[in-house]
Amino acid sequence: MDKGSAWNLWNVSICPPNRLPYAMLWVVVVVAVVVVVVVVVVVMVVVVVVVKVVVVVVVVVAAAAVVVIVVEEEEEEEEEEEEEKRKEKKKTKKKKMMMMKKKSYSSVLYVILFSVLSYLS
After folding, report:
1. Is residue 109 part of a domain?
2. Which residues does the annotated region (Disordered) include (predicted)?
3. pTM for the model
């Protein structure tokens, strides 16, 4: 067999001229499968990227919420401490006032006592 006849044999066995639409069908099927595979891979990559972005956003939002809660708790603790300090200052002022009143009462009593004693003597 010469080269021409071998070529014709290959052409007849693989893709005979009367079977050209059948061969085109295989080409269409192969192209469709490749397109479907590419689309599936692209969709999977997009889904993975979207899931990663969603996870990052959820983690960032959760971290921000935790930070906000911690800051609010610290502010509440500071306010409670300030309130306690104010109460202690008020108590201290009241004690000082009571001591001053006692001192003033006792000094008045001393003055009266000394006056009475001096009057009696």
Report:
1. no
2. 75-96
3. 0.44
